[in-house]
Amino acid sequence: MGKTTKIGMIGLDTSHVTCFAELLMNPNDENHIAGCEVVAGWPGGSEDFPMSVSRVDGYTSKLKDHYKVSILNTPEEVAEMCDVVFINAVDGRVHQELFKKIAHFKKPTFIDKPLACDVSEAEEIIATSKANNVTLASCSSLRFVDEYQAALKDDSQGRIISIEAWGPLSFKTPIQGYYWYGIHAIDMIVAGMGAGCISAKATVGEQSEVVQYEWIDGRNAIYHGLKAGQSTFGAVIHREQGKQMVDVSKAKRPFYACLLDELLKTLPFNKTPICEVEMLETIRLIELANASRELACKSI
């Protein structure tokens, strides 16, 4: 039997921590990912974010009592104890600070979405990872849904010329704009289109919002955030000789199982499943869209 990869979790204020723990530590789960276990956690929590501070105790207790995870006093203690770090804190505003605390341990690190809530902070996280030789990954769980990845890799109809991606849209103060939930479908766009976006134009409606993106090579993409009606994720990939539609709600495996599988095929071996350029591009797209959205809201 091979060596078990020890995972430490920093920021226990999101359901992601228990979803991940269940997939990793319950061998009876049909999507169980063997060879890894969560060994340590640090609760964290943001006092000015009700969705964070109101949930951290519950998820911390479940990790401790149900999954027998050691709850430690500092992020540094967690990083020292594990092989791979997961920064799960639901508040993207604290990700840079948390990463700076543990980067010198040089442990491969996954930062849950969003990487940061500001392009400059995202750039600083990347710079810190390089300075400390830390392998880094950050993305939405939607990026690695099996059926979406299969569609992106199937180029039998030619290159991608446009993508329309959609999903449910909601907002949570104090997280700005699309950083909260828009990031999922926007990251799907970046996964297919790559870097090079030069502009964004947001249209704000009562039941939905649309962002039109333009790339430097003339291609474009559309994000459609649904504030009412159906609440599933999906995408249409337009290619030179045809199109592909992916209904993520019909995926065979849960989003988090797809994400964990990809992360744990790579991070323990000091590899990353997503390049830094695309990690930053997703944050750039959100920032461009948020700026346009703010102007659109003022005109309503």
Give an overview in words.
The structure is a single chain. The chain has 2 domains: 5-138, 3-Layer(aba) Sandwich (Rossmann fold), CATH 3.40.50.720; 142-253 and 283-299, Dihydrodipicolinate Reductase, domain 2, CATH 3.30.360. Helices cover 36% and strands 23% of the residues. Strand 1 (5-10), helix 1 and strand 2 (36-42) form a beta-alpha-beta unit. The chain is an alpha/beta fold. It has helices spanning 16-25, 50-53, 56-65, 75-81, 95-102, 119-131, 146-153, 183-193, 255-266, 276-299; strands at residues 5-10, 36-42, 70-71, 84-87, 109-111, 136-137, 160-168, 197-204, 208-215, 220-226, 234-239, 242-247. The model has no long low-confidence stretch (mean pLDDT 96). It starts with a strand and ends with a helix. The strands form 2 sheets. Strands 3-2-1-4-5-6 form a 6-stranded parallel β-sheet, sandwiched between helices. Strands 8-9-10-7-11-12 form a 6-stranded mixed β-sheet, covered by helices on one side.
